[in-house]
Design a protein that fits this description.
Elements: E1 10-14, E2 24-32, E3 35-43, E4 46-47, H1 48-62, H2 67-81
């Protein structure tokens, strides 16, 4: 599906802070089971989904596929995200 459609809308906003350059924000959504979910957040043209994917791949390469090490690195970040 194409982005920016009813099924996958993009919500755009821009910050306004005195004395600072505005920051452009885009929330990319996807309709799933009758509800919308955020599938990506784009900040000033940088996709957070792609950034995290790249970071995740770097971690996998560092631990050379050793699952126990990978899980040990991911658990603290997962616990922090549950807050």
């Amino acid at each position: 599906m194409a982005r920016g459609t009813e099924a996958e809308p993009i919500i755009k906003a821009e910050t306004e802070r005195p004395g600072a350059v505005p920051i452009k924000l885009e929330w990319w959504l996807s309709a799933t089971s009758g509800a919308y979910r955020v599938t990506d957040l784009v900040i000033d043209g940088t996709s957070m989904m792609l950034s995290y994917r790249s970071e995740f791949l770097t971690i996998i390469e560092r631990v050379r596929g050793m699952l126990a090490q990978l899980l040990a690195r991911l658990r603290p970040a997962s616990a922090a995200a549950d807050v």
